Amino acid sequence: MGIIGSIRKHSGIAVTVVGLAIVIFIVTGNDSVLNWFKSDKNVIAEVDGVSLDRMQFADMIDQEEAKIRFFAQDPSLTFNSDTEKALRDSLWANFVDEIVIGEQLKKLGLDISEAEVNDMYTGTFIHPFFMQNPQLRDSTGQYNRALMAAQLKNYNKMDALNQSYWDETKRSITTDRLRQKYATLVYSGFYMPAPIAKQIAEYGSKGVNVSVVSMPYDRVADNEIQLTDADYQKYYDEHKEEYRNMSEEIRMLEYVTFAIAPSATDFAAAQDSAMSAWGRLQATPDSSKRLARVVKSETIKEFAYDSLYHSASYYPEIFREKVEASAVGTEIEPMQIGDKWFMGRVMNIENRPDSIRTRVMFVFSDKLSSSFQRDSARADVLSDSLLTELNAGRLSFDSAVANYCDIKINMTPDSLGDIRWQEEGTFDLVYNSIFEQIFRAQGVTFFKGINERIVATPQGGQFRFALPDELGYAIVKVTDKTAPVKKYRLALIAQEIRPSKETISQIESAANKFLSESRNDKTFEENARKQNMQVMTAYVRLMDDRLNNLDNARDVVKWAFDENTEVGQVNSVVASFDNVYAVVMLKDVFQKGYYTLAQVRSNPSFNFEQLVRMEKRIEIQMARAEKLAQSCKNIQDVAVSLNDSVVVLDSISLFADHFGGFGMEPRVQSVASVSKSNGLIGPIRGARGAYFVQVNNRFEMQKVDPEQLRLGQEYNTRSMIGRVQRGRYLPMDRMIFWWLRANAKMEDHRDLMY
Q: 208, 697 in Cβ contact below 8 A?
């Protein structure tokens, strides 16, 4: 059970969505067609005819949350908004995949036998989830099948937690392997027939010596290119598949923001407040207990009066210079840095390490948990004896942790109890955080002052630390320290300059005034231009809850997707975020399917204007080349007509990785190498220009193996066929499932629940 426990601890299951981490190569997506069901308002989604209602989805969420709590062994575990959204999105993706991909697997009769499952654990084709886990490797670094087999054999002896983990793992790797089978079937269909491979190999074994004259496209002047609506339409029609939205519907929003920032009056008030705090700091001596209270009452959350030491780099640059120039007892006068006032008193200066590495072992008493079957006195005696033996060198820390430690920390596989490198000053927090994770005892301080004990302990030394309320002891070993650097302990006051209620009200009024004068897209854009305001753009999907970097935008997104919201309409409510107000307009709707020509032209990311101009440039140059070809009998005639020179390329073949000084020109190379003509060839439309070619000589080159050619081509095809989705390149296997989801018939109205 030790190994599987280690796997469980390191798999992140307690803090992530169980069952999703193991599916390695599948990219999920949320695809929707927003046509609301008229028959049943309880139905929130439908995928290929399979419906999902509110109660069903709520039950799925409840079950998944319960599973996570079970694996975390924390019934009271709560989830923040980001985690809840990730959970809902993951469950939705699973629901879609079970139907869309599951139906394909069912049609093909694909299945995983029990023998195949066992093979993924201990056979020939080990699943990557196990193969990549360092806990399942032997001393040589090889996967340890015997160790895994022993774990499987002990399944019936495992507790419920570990059995559930094995069950979840089996389900996930089985799902993954099934989809691998499907992907393999699909991309195995991309092949090169042997006769074609043979023909290409024959062409590839022949080389040519050629004379070339080029007509680069960039020689067409910009003023020669006059684009018409017909040109845009023609290019769009010929490349329409490149402008297809295969994912869910997207809504384009434009908005202006009103930053909630302090006014001049607020800055003046903040200065008065800072001077008042400075007076109280000066009037309070070091030894007064009031000093900490004064500082804490005046400071912002980023800085606090405490016993920590910091290097000068911890402080803002201008304040840092004052700190470095100060002696103990020096008071640093107030200074405004950005939106904060800083002031302070240097309490002490010491040379201390930046980082320290420690190891720890725990000896608990039954006052912490009845599972520790020793009272406080026995815990005291045992921990004291262990420390004595450790200090005397008669017991190694490894042996002590392995044989006597009640709970073994395993942050590094090869060193039990290792807490790894931590910044000096953070050990109270780090050690308490470890206890919180072990016992879910949030808000309880077990370790206070352990940081100073660690700093005071020399490298290689160890000490015993008593937990409060006779809960037990920790024995800490300081294994390594960085070189000491000068550090400072300050009584620091850092006051933030905040906008007043009156300022916030004025800013909100300005936003509402802009809204009242901007009720449609024309007045919105006109007023933004008049007021020199930057218009921001955001692309949102149905279940998004952010507007670019603005959080808590769910209401705005729901408004954008409301069936009554029209393009050009401005939201009737000023949106309120943490530090800005925003007025939002629905600029455009990109439905699932083909983007319109207008949308393609207006979206800068498509670079449509430049593409059409380039196509027109090519069209003009090719027309000139065609006309020239009618009056030229050989390559010299072409060169004379263009007042250019002939370039001779000694050796060109079908598989050459260059075309002389012209760069890669596969089309030109292909035509030249397979042509049987001895006369003028062209014009050929290349990547960089129109080309005229004349073959001077043909010769045999090294033979190409047709079978190797065929296999290489199949591999390249499977590797290279893909698509860029949301800025990420999808290789072949991922694209298969992305394509299935994109072509499924879906209606998604989860926004009615969230």
A: yes
Q: Residue 162 carries which side chain, given as an amino acid letter?
A: N
CB atoms within 10 A of CB 558: 17
Inform me whether the pLDDT recorded for 300 exceeds 80: no
Task: Decide if pLDDT at 484 tops 90.
Answer: yes
Is 146 among the domain residues?
yes
**Cα separation of 487 and 348, whole Å?**
9
pLDDT at 18 over 90: no
Regarding whether 672 and 655 lie in a shared domain, the answer is yes
Quote the domain boundaries for residue 320. 264-353+490-496
Q: Checking phi first, is residue 109 left (phi over 0); if not, alpha (psi -120 to 50) or beta?
A: left
Is pLDDT of 12 > 70? no
Whether 125 and 56 share a structural domain:
yes
| Whole-prediction pTM | 0.69
Q: What is the pLDDT of residue 731?
A: 60
What CATH number did the domain enclosing 437 receive? 3.10.50.40
Q: How many Cβ atoms sit within 10 Å of the Cβ of residue 144?
A: 18
| Rounded distance between C-alpha atoms, residue 180 and residue 176, angstroms | 6
Handedness of CA 72, 75, 76, 79 (dihedral sign): positive
* Shared domain check, 332 and 237: no
Provide the edge-to-edge strand list for the sheet that holds 575-576: 536-540, 250-259, 580-590, 575-576
How many structural domains compose the chain? 5
Quick one: 523 and 386 in the same domain?
A: no
**Residues 390 and 346 reside in one and the same domain:** no
The rounded Cα 21 to chain-centroid distance in angstroms is 14
CB 696 within 8 A of CB 209: yes
Cα 213 to Cα 298, 618, 682: the distances in Å are 79, 16, 10
Most trustworthy range by pLDDT among 123-132, 299-308, 434-443: 123-132
Instruction: Summarize pLDDT for 316-366 with one digit per residue, the tens.
Output: 889 999 999 999 999 999 999 988 999 989 989 999 999 999 999 999 998
Place of tokens 């390695």: 24
Average pLDDT over residues 90-118: 89
- Alpha carbon distance 362, 555 (integer Å): 49
pLDDT of residue 443: 57
| Mean pLDDT rounded to a whole number for the chain | 84
How far is residue 10's CA from residue 6's CA, in Å, rounded to a whole number? 6
In this structure, the answer to whether residues 45 and 179 fall within a common structural domain is yes
Sequence-ordered list of residues with C-beta below 8 angstroms from that of 626, at least 6 positions apart, any chain: 683
Is residue 40 domain-shared with residue 167, that is, in the same domain? yes
